């Protein structure tokens, strides 16, 4: 087992003929992900990266039985791409694109919340279950299969942590990047729930950052419902208030959303909170009984 | 993107929200002319994108056009929290009987636009939120249904708006919601919304923040951007698609990815140094972007050392290395550099930099420790 993506994933790539879409489709295919098709309006009937291209998601789903889609289309078209995938019956939508207007995401979330569909992102690196499926833009080779679940708001910081785990021979069940925007499809709690239920995951690493209160709410969930140990790092201790730190969601506003508050809440919930990313691998190794 | 008070109020006015008569002025003489046309007492208000203008002496009442010119002369050019005042707003002074707060923002946890009202108007709302949270009334708005008049009525009752003003209040609240949605705002507030002596509602002060991600469809608002009020290097960075935030430390940072950038800053601090900036070169950084980023970092004279921390995924280390060489060749800087390149094409990247005599590091911790050490050495060297 694992969560979200695995060898049963039948992946559709929305925006497959674009520069980013094509490059990453080739990378995902090379990793062994079961990519069954792509969508680019007006390019139906063509082929890209060895898979058929369709004009709409509905056409692609009926031809390929895709159950998952990944979105690389430009920001101004991405809200539509998410809605189109949801309406076509896709159950898991991963939106890599960054820069979606926040008010569009308010509507998208309100619409898909009433449906049996899960959204990861936007503005995220995707999800990977090592040796089974890579649905995202992360470098596949740094991952090895194992029992540590990873959930993060960041991209490269997650790679940093994964690489350190792999170097020690500690593998990952699934690594999920939930995205750096203020409104995202799945929050820490959504992913923690999946890891708690997953038979292959023995412990979880959580990588948060300044902005919002997602980490605080995750702390409450961990305290009340998690049996598996959680180790956490929060980025942005040195970030000044009122300034957006790259990610649209990474901003300390009105004195809330600070790293200190998040670390305190997590510690109070029994989470091991580290001061530097390198300590994560040490703690995880100790917990794994090495 | 933040709008000035006068810009925000002009947007509000387009949605039927009553604002005081007034106009902006860039010189004391212009301020005098505006005051003359308005007649009667006026308020001269510094237009800078920062809170606490009143406390800093940036808002003054003037009884006559002569006095308005005098006050404008004092305020124009004034430094408020590091920003120079280039414009003042000259508004007709309001006869204030009561002050209310009315604002809209996006509640991340509820994933809804939320209207906030408080009878504690005219003060810093964040302070009210911290000390008297029960004084703030919040109404979550369904994105498909929109803001309804019954919600405005409920809010009016909670805020103790006089019955004869509920109709006007409903129009203002609905107008503010429409302005918020149509402008792709992330914040729109009227603080204070004043009940005047003659029993009318008036938006005396206003503030709007526009979602940068939506500026592509807000061309009119995008044109209002006041580059004078922006850090010139932050503006320069934006042109190259870089996220750059200037800080007051002495170690310049160039990192790929926002989370890793923040973690790198945190590590510098952990080892006793202080970061000079946040800079995310982004995914797939090309050599000319890297070169531009280095120019921007080095434009800050406080920078005593530069730390490159690149975890190559989409970004290729050899491409970054080439960018560093291009920039070094152009800038010929004496500032010492520490480089950590891992991931895609790291060997090629390191080979390219082999002759550049830069400190290298294998891990983030080692890189941060070395950067702190070379910055310290550079500072002590220049002090002698």
In short:
The complex is a heterodimer of chains A (290) and B (384). Chain A is 33% helix and 22% strand.
Rough outline of chain B: elongated
Number of domains of chain B: 3
The major pleated sheet of chain A works out as:
7 strands, mixed
Straight-line distance between termini of chain B: 44 Å
CATH topology of the largest domain in chain B: Rossmann fold
Tally the beta strands of chain A.
Answer: 14
Number of helices of chain A: 9
Largest sheet of chain B: 7 strands, antiparallel
Please provide the count of β strands of chain B. Answer: 19
Mean pLDDT of chain B, rounded to whole units? 91
Percentage of residues assigned to helices of chain A: 25-40%
* Secondary-structure-derived class of chain B: alpha+beta
CATH class descriptor of the largest domain in chain B: Alpha Beta
CATH superfamily of the largest domain in chain B: Succinyl-CoA synthetase domains
SSE order of chain A in H/E notation?
Answer: EHEEEHEHEHEEEEHEHEHEHEH
% residues in beta strands of chain A: 15-25%
Binned strand content of chain B: 25-35%
Rg of chain B computed from alpha carbons, rounded to a whole number of angstroms: 25 Å
């Amino acid at each position: 087992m694992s969560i979200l993506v695995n060898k049963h994933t039948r992946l559709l790539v929305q925006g497959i003929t674009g520069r980013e879409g094509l490059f990453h489709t080739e990378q995902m295919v090379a990793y062994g992900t079961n990519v069954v098709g792509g969508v680019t309006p007006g390019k139906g009937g063509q082929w890209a990266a060895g898979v058929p291209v369709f004009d709409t998601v509905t056409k692609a789903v009926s031809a390929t039985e895709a159950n998952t889609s990944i979105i690389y289309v430009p920001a101004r078209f991405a809200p539509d791409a998410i809605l189109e995938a949801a309406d076509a019956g896709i159950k898991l939508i991963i939106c890599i694109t960054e820069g979606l207007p926040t008010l569009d995401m308010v509507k998208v979330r309100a619409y898909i919340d009433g449906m049996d569909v899960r959204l990861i992102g936007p503005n995220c690196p995707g999800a990977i279950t090592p040796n089974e499926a890579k649905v995202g833009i992360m470098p596949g080779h740094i991952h090895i299969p194992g029992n540590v679940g990873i959930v993060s708001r960041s991209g490269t910081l997650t790679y940093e942590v994964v690489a350190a785990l792999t170097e020690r021979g500690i593998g990952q069940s699934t690594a999920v990047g939930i995205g750096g925007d203020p409104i995202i499809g799945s929050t820490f709690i959504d992913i923690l729930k999946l890891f708690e239920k997953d038979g292959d995951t023995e412990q979880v690493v959580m990588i948060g950052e300044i902005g919002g209160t997602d980490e605080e709410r995750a702390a409450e969930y961990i305290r009340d419902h998690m049996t598996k140990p959680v180790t956490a790092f929060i980025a942005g201790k040195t970030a000044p208030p009122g300034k957006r730190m790259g990610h649209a969601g990474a901003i300390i506003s009105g004195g809330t959303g600070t790293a200190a508050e998040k670390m305190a809440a997590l510690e109070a919930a029994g989470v091991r909170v580290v001061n530097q990313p390198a300590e994560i691998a040490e703690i995880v190794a100790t917990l794994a009984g090495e | 993107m933040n709008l000035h008070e006068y810009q925000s109020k002009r947007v509000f006015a387009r949605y039927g929200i009553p604002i005081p008569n007034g106009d902006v002025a860039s010189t004391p003489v212009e301020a005098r002319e505006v005051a003359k046309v308005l007649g009667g007492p006026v308020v001269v208000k510094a237009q800078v994108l920062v809170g606490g203008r009143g406390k800093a002496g940036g808002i003054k009442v003037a009884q006559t056009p002569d006095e308005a010119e005098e006050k404008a002369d004092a305020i124009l050019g004034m430094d408020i929290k590091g920003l120079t005042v280039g414009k003042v707003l000259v508004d007709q002074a309001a006869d204030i009987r009561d002050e209310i707060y009315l604002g809209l923002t996006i509640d991340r946890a509820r994933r809804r636009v939320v209207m906030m009202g408080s009878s504690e108007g005219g003060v810093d709302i964040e302070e009210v939120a911290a000390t008297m949270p029960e004084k703030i009334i919040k109404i979550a708005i369904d994105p498909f249904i929109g803001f309804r008049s019954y919600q405005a009525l409920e809010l009016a009752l909670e805020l103790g708006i006089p019955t004869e003003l509920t109709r006007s209040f409903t129009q203002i609240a609905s107008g503010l919601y429409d302005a918020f949605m149509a402008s792709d705002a992330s914040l729109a507030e009227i603080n204070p919304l004043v009940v005047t002596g003659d029993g009318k509602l008036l938006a005396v002060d206003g503030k709007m923040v526009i979602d940068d991600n939506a500026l592509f469809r807000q061309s009119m608002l995008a044109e209002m951007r006041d580059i004078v009020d922006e850090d010139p290097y932050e503006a320069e960075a934006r042109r190259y698609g870089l996220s750059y935030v200037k800080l007051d430390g002495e170690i310049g940072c160039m990192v790929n990815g926002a989370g890793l950038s923040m973690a790198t800053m945190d590590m510098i601090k952990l080892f006793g140094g202080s970061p000079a900036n946040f800079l995310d070169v982004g995914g797939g950084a090309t050599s000319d972007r890297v070169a531009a980023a280095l120019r921007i970092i080095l434009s800050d004279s406080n920078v005593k050392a530069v730390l490159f921390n690149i975890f190559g995924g989409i970004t290729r280390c050899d491409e970054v290395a080439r960018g560093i060489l291009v920039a070094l060749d152009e800038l010929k800087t004496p500032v010492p550099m520490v480089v950590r390149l891992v991931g895609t094409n790291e060997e090629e990247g390191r080979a390219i930099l082999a002759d550049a005599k830069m400190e290298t590091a294998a891990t983030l911790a080692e890189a941060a420790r070395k950067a702190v050490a070379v910055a310290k050495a550079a500072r002590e060297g220049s002090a002698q």
